Amino acid sequence: QQQVKQSPQSLIVQKGGISIINCAYENTAFDYFPWYQQFPGKGPALLIAIRPDVSEKKEGRFTISFNKSAKQFSLHIMDSQPGDSATYFCAASKGGNDYKLSFGAGTTVTVRA
Amino acid sequence: DAGITQSPRHKVTETGTPVTLRCHQTENHRYMYWYRQDPGHGLRLIHYSYGVKDTDKGEVSDGYSVSRSKTEDFLLTLESATSSQTSVYFCAISRTGHMNTEAFFGQGTRLTVV
Question: Could you tell me which of A101, A59, A106 has the C-alpha nearest to residue A86?
Fold first, then answer.
């Protein structure tokens, strides 16, 4: 049973558009929410992460929005570029020294030039 | 890329044969992890290690065993491979087990069990 549900499975966006990926969780013990980016043939790499004590975190064109009461968080990619075409995974882990990550199923983003 | 090397990168094996995948790191990180990646499931944790000879099970550990005799090496063994273990396997490392520590992933091993 997947502890983090991610949608959509895939999306296509025009260059310059906004990509939005949503994730939801049930386990209220989760206390750390990273997003990983994966290019074909490569391992995932950390993109951006958030803790539930903030509602939004922005790094460049990437923004995480977090809604603790709804147990939902999302990734927004602003001004999407062809180089952003990749698979994105949301994840969650519990607090303390338990760094086991629970991943969503992934979203494949294609940015059309 | 973080200093993580997975070997082999690709392997085809027959059902019922033993298979060992190797993860080697040069970062001297304490924590090491094995994940499998399957379409529709994302990445799922198989086993992890929090030090030499210290390992624990993840969410999909059945059919897998691990060993860590040195800080730099973490081995994943499929004792008797089955077709359901066809997957892409990723090793990851992290400096500490604290939740804010970034995990670095290797490039993966594509295993096909025929």
Answer: A106
